[in-house]
Fold this sequence. Notes:
By secondary structure, the chain is α/β, with parallel strands linked by helices. The protein has helices at residues 17-26, 48-64, 75-80, 96-106, 118-123, 125-133, 147-152, 161-177, 193-200, 209-223, 242-252, and strands spanning 7-11, 32-36, 69-72, 92-93, 111-116, 138-143, 181-184, 205-208, 234-238, 262-264. It has two domains: 7-94 and 211-269, Rossmann fold (3-Layer(aba) Sandwich), CATH 3.40.50.1860; 96-209, Rossmann fold (3-Layer(aba) Sandwich), CATH 3.40.50. A six-stranded parallel sheet has the order 4-3-1-2-9-10, sandwiched between helices. It has a four-stranded parallel sheet with strand order 6-5-7-8, with helices on both faces.
Amino acid sequence: MADKRPIGVFDSGLGGLTVVKEIIKELPFEDIIYFGDTGRVPYGTRSVETIKKYARQDEKFLLSQDVKLIIAACGTVSSVAGDTAKELPVPFFEVVSHASRQAVNESKNGKIAVIGTNATVKSGQHKAEILKINPNAEVITVACPLFVPLVEEGWYKGDDIIVLETVKRYLQPIIEFGADTLILGCTHYPVLSEAIKKVLGDGVVLINAGTEVAKAVAKYLKDNSLDNQNGGEAEFFVSDKPDFFKEQASVLLECEIDENKVQKVDINNL
Length: 270
């Protein structure tokens, strides 16, 4: 029996839109409720306790919208606050395990790189997942804390000298390591793919967690007869700067977002 309730997606800001984009491709008839915590971005520099607090608040908001499942479209939350899922009455999907599995499948030389926020890298979750699948893999993890602010400011074009130089500085250890596969361990990072490809070259496969989690959600919905064949609408909620969010979302999703589809909510007082 079809379930017409929307899919809930949350992230610290704009990054989760890379996941929404993949969900729309994979599941064009599903309705989506997206929450971007633009007033408290980034999450990756916060303490574990604060990240878990934010995650619970974000999840509470999505539950108030009667979603049928929740996707933590945030590498930081997926890495350090995944245990909040145990408290949820609906299925929960994170981005770490799916990306790690695909990276192992794609790598030819067994050298896999992971980039993420400080909290994501410190957690070691990607490395643990990779080694669980392939104990012989070699893994390098690099924190790239300036990537999220760049994206949130709308600076992500591949020909932007500031973007390119920042990417070069962070990715140099990965070039020296010789990785043939790179996990974009924060959902903001696919927005910087053009610059990352310029720096690393065509020999390195980029793993977009959004693509993998969208496939996992599609399979779950189909296997459990919970897919919706009559939807296709998306609504967006943010904790700050709705006008800027609408502008950037229209660019990232490659479609015009109606201003009535972006609303500001007070996430602290729900």
